[in-house]
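Tutorial, part two.
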Amino acid sequence: MTCVFATNNPGKVKELKILLQSEGIELLTLSDLGLVFEPEETGTTFEENAIIKATETAALLREKGHEFIVLADDSGIEIDALGKKPGVDSANFLGSETPYHVRNKKIIEMLADIPDKKRTARFVCVIACVLPSPVSPFTTRACVEGNIAREQKGENGFGYDPIFFLPDRGKTTAELSNEEKNEISHRGQSLKKMIRLLREKGKIS
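Running the prediction step on this input gives:
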């Protein structure tokens, strides 16, 4: 089976391809189809933004004569000491063009006086699906709980991975191997839930 995932994030594509290949699903992106499209994320929740991206991408594909299962995600980091920010604005925190190592450094500075037990945070991922047949989009959600580290560590991740510390593993998500990350990641868990839903609906074997 082939599906289109509405993302232009190369780090996310790499992670998703590993996850989907293990399920026998081929992943295509809009760039694979020669298309450039970036829906405006106007929602106030992860669910709203994921549905916007999936439905608008599916509409574009239908206009171009493509019929695929379309998946899209909205994900981010919620930091309790910052009132669960940046949340849905995670991709635009300090500006969309700001390198993540700069954003991570700023977060560490903002939490400099926060004790370890109050540095709780979570990665959240919501995946939305639009099927070729005219049915309402549906979503899955998953979270991973952790803490904000006091320094950036690890090279095997992207985004906020270098500052997201997992107490039970004693390392940041950027220090995990691909296999370890796929096992526990918010995106991996949400995607596995979506695959189970698609199997229940008879859309994949």
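The chain has a mean pLDDT of 92. In part three we will examine how such features are distributed along the chain.
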